Amino acid sequence: MSWKISNAEHLRMEFVLLAREPDVNLSEVCRQFRISRKTGYKWLQRYKSKGLPGLADRSHRPEASPLQVTGAVVVELVKLRKDHEHWGPKKLKAALARSGFDSTEIPCLATIGRILRRAGLSEAKGRGRPRSQLPIGPLTPAQGPNQVWTVDFKGWWRTRDGNRCEPLTIRDLYSRYLLCLRPVHRRRVNDVQVVFADVFRRYGLPEIIRSDNGGPFASITGPHGLTRLSAWWRTLGIKLERIDPGHPEQNGGHERMHGDLAREIQRQPSATVAEETKRLEQWRVEFNMERPHEALAMKTPGEVYHSSQRRLENVRPYVYSLHFARRRVGRDGCILIGSRYVYVSSALAKTDVGLERLTESSWRVWFCDLAVQEIHFDGSKFIRQPTTPGTTSRSEDCHPSPDNNLLPITGS
Fold first, then answer.
1. What is the band of 62 on the pLDDT scale with cuts at 50, 70, 90?
2. CATH says 72-118 is which class?
3. What pLDDT digit, counting tens, does each position of 270-314 carry?
4. Predicted model pTM
5. Under 8 Å between Cβ of 149 and 173
6. Can you tell me whether residue 384 is helix, strand or coil?
7. Residue 202 and residue 193: Cα distance in Å, rounded?
8. In Å, what is the CA distance from 234 to each residue of 47, 313, 369, 371?
9. What CATH architecture applies to the domain 148-312?
């Protein structure tokens, strides 16, 4: 017979009546009801002192609660949650400490969660699905501010007047500081480059920019995945990192921030894009200056971040090796070799490349420290060969010249 049934009091009464019979072995009765002798004596003592009411269940609530949460803490906690409806117990606990409460008055995280649930401000959640352990590529761990910036576009939504709003988000990986949260009209390189130029002038230059493999950050056809935007970053001395295709969890902190943005802004859009832009900037300020982060020991990003000492105005052109010939890439992506124009990449338009002569009829094209491609002349035409797998190649010249004679390569 088990105690794990609904009519536990009836079982206790049966046990007491049977145990009080004369010449009954108490140990045998306890084994029959699958209880310990200590429990058996307890129920006998309660029946002896209070009769059948003594066999009823008692409250587990302690007689005294010296660590009980004060009413003032509960009121402030509810107020903070209503002001920041998406903050969890960890952020609310840090906010309570900032409000002037003594550390002995602030409840633990579990208690804060129970208070929120009892107040109808939260609901219990399950464990969810376990996360898969996927291998991570060679991504640089940030050891300080401005070492790695992460960039992406937040998924677009429409304001109430029907216009499209798609913010560009730029974030410092180490401090979680949100550097930019600004809607752009289109994902064109020129529009995005203007935003990055403003951010660079305000905060300086990072060492690395990490992005996904979508435009305008990366290209499947450009050498080394370069686009006009990422090529510009490279000319500024910024290294490029990209997460593996189809694995946004490698940029998980950035995606988490996008989730907060979707819940707090996107679900209730403004009337116009101009109003949405103001709301996004206010949200950015709150994110940086008010919202504590667990990874920062509950500090705010603004308390950790500082501007970069590498300034945009101090950038100097990349210096190629002395035995390289410098060439300017035209708007069409071509460079001049001898008397012919040879296509390199439209992503490198209006930039300088270096030509390293390998043989009398072959050259290697360098963009900064990246080997873009090798060019060979077979006597009648130029043949381009990519230096990295996956780069498309073209065997024809962009602008054939009637003069088939090659001129020696000299400086530009």
1. confident
2. mainly alpha
3. 999 999 999 999 999 999 999 999 889 899 999 999 999 999 999
4. 0.66
5. yes
6. strand
7. 14
8. 84, 15, 9, 13
9. 2-Layer Sandwich (3.30)
